[in-house]
């Protein structure tokens, strides 16, 4: 346990963020009477002391952000020495590292300067600085967007079963068929009002992404109803990209895939997370490795030429041999993209409910192996984000073959285009570029609440969009 005294400041959250890289949350206490570590700001220095280790640096008194980052740096440096542990992402706890690169490039800084800044200011390792710059360079060509355009996200909060790590709005489809029908009816009402408003005001849809949940867990009739209604408002043939997550193999059949092909879906996800049978059972997925392979080839036979597969590093009881088996099986399939996630213990997940704390010691080795496999398959890293509460201080990275990058994923992380989101727990993000600000409007998370309050959410979203269009 660490008991920290704050002296000369009250930036408790910033210190907590760094402490949490070394301690569990319940091991961190702020106590000015009984302490074994100190975070100090005096007239000249930001200081952190623990044991016989003291780190300090001067700080810019006129800039609050600079003060906070100075406190983070000295805290990280002291704790890294105290534990003899390197934190590859340094003090950078934000989820969008590449935005720093894009912002510095706008200021006219070259890549050499940016790399040095990431290492010296944020204390990134050289490997992570290089990765951040590489991803930023690969995604940059996709940041330009058509005029008068927004992108569209549609959330489907149903799955065959709930995975133990999942924190999304998700309900088991079996036993909730009536609720799913009510949800589709409410979603179509939101389509009519919101997409009707978008069409009337001549905004173009740039990319479309159906996520969840597992959208393909709906029946083929429900999927058809949704996609036919979408056609009333969106010219499917004019969008740059149309992604539909068919993430769970046990939710896919030939008829559903044919429907997606009919509606010009250009990209699908078939997500195993792992190719180890024992782990699939532990995490609550009721399908086999054989089903993953069968559904992948079924999609191939129907003409899908842009298939993504997700892999999670740090699943319960997995080790380096587990990820080797997973990547060897996926390599045989040769998908167009692979997204490598590092598992995070989210507050709304079953793992958090059972107080799962098994931080995987070999996660870095597993991650590096999976990443190298992607590169060996001719893929490049094209988007990246980080999360809190990961089993290791790593990142999530999307790898793809050149020309098969997911534009929506890039847009979501870069926040370069407004994203209109429909469905339960869907968060609309409106980008006001001239004002350098983002407004967020979230639909309610609970499916029944979404159904019951759909009119309220429609009215509020119309007001948000009206303000956006008028500006």
Let me know the average pLDDT: 92
Rg estimate, integer Å? 23 Å
- Terminal CA distance reads 51 Å
Q: Name the strands of the widest sheet in spatial order.
A: 14-15-13-12-11-10-9-6-16
- Structural class call reads alpha/beta
Helix content: 25-40%
What's the number of helices?
A: 16
Total beta-strand segments:
18
Label the overall shape: globular
How does this structure look, described?
With 471 residues, the chain is of the alpha/beta class. Helix content is 40%, strand content 20%. It contains 16 helices and 18 strands. The strands form four sheets. The protein has a nine-stranded mixed sheet with strand order 14-15-13-12-11-10-9-6-16, with helices on both faces. It has a five-stranded mixed sheet with strand order 2-1-3-4-5. The model is unreliable at 346-356 (pLDDT under 50).
How would you summarize what this structure contains?
The protein is α/β, with parallel strands linked by helices.
Could you give the topology of this structure?
Layout: E1 2-7, H1 12-19, E2 28-30, E3 37-41, E4 45-50, E5 53-58, H2 64-83, H3 98-106, H4 111-120, H5 126-139, E6 149-156, E7 158-159, E8 171-172, H6 177-200, E9 204-212, H7 220-231, E10 241-245, H8 254-262, E11 267-269, H9 277-282, H10 289-301, E12 307-313, H11 320-333, E13 337-342, H12 350-353, H13 363-376, E14 380-385, E15 396-400, H14 407-414, E16 419-422, E17 427-432, E18 437-442, H15 447-452, H16 454-470
Parallel strand pairs: 1-2, 1-3, 6-9, 6-16, 7-8, 9-10, 10-11, 11-12, 12-13
Antiparallel strand pairs: 3-4, 4-5, 13-15, 14-15, 17-18
């Amino acid at each position: 346990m660490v008991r920290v005294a704050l002296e000369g400041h009250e930036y408790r959250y910033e210190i907590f963020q760094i402490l949490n890289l070394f301690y569990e949350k319940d091991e961190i206490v702020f106590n000015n009477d009984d302490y074994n570590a100190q975070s100090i700001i005096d007239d000249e220095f930001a200081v952190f002391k623990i044991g016989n280790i003291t780190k300090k640096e001067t700080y810019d008194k006129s800039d609050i952000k600079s003060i906070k980052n100075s406190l983070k740096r000295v805290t990280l440096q002291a704790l890294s020495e105290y534990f003899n542990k390197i934190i590859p992402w340094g003090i950078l706890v934000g989820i969008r590292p590449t935005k720093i690169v894009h912002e510095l490039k706008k200021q006219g800084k070259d890549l050499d300067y940016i790399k040095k800044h990431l290492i010296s200011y944020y204390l990134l390792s050289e490997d992570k600085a290089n990765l951040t710059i590489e991803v930023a360079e690969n995604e940059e060509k996709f940041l330009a967007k058509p005029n008068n355009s927004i992108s569209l996200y549609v959330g489907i909060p149903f799955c065959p079963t709930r995975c133990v790590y999942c924190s999304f709005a998700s309900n088991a489809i079996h036993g909730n068929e009536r609720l799913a029908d009510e949800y589709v009816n409410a979603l179509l009402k939101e389509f009519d009002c919101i997409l009707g408003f978008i069409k009337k005001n001549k905004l173009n849809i740039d990319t479309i992404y159906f996520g969840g949940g597992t959208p393909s867990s709906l029946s083929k009739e429900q999927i058809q109803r949704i996609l036919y209604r979408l056609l009333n408002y969106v010219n499917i043939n004019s969008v740059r990209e149309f992604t539909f997550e068919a993430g769970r193999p046990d939710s896919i059949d030939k008829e559903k895939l044919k429907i997606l092909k009919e509606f010009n879906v250009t990209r699908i996800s078939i997500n195993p997370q792992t190719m180890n049978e024992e782990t699939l059972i532990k995490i609550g997925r009721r399908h086999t490795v054989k089903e993953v392979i069968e559904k992948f080839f079924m999609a191939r036979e129907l003409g899908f030429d842009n298939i993504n597969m997700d892999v999670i590093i740090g699943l319960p009881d997995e080790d380096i041999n587990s990820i080797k088996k997973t990547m060897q099986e996926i390599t045989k399939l040769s998908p167009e993209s692979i997204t490598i996630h590092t598992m995070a213990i989210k507050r709304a997940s079953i793992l958090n409910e059972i107080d799962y704390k098994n931080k995987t010691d070999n996660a870095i080795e597993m991650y590096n192996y999976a990443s190298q496999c992607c590169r060996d398959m001719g893929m490049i890293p094209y988007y990246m984000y980080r999360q809190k509460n990961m089993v290791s201080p790593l990142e999530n990275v999307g790898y793809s073959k050149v020309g098969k990058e997911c534009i929506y994923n890039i847009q979501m992380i870069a926040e370069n285009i407004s994203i209109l989101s429909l469905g339960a727990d869907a968060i609309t993000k409106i980008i006001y570029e001239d004002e350098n600000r983002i407004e967020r409007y979230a639909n309610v998370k609970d499916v029944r609440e979404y159904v019951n309050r759909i009119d309220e959410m429609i009215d509020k979203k119309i007001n948000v969009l009206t303000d956006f269009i008028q500006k």
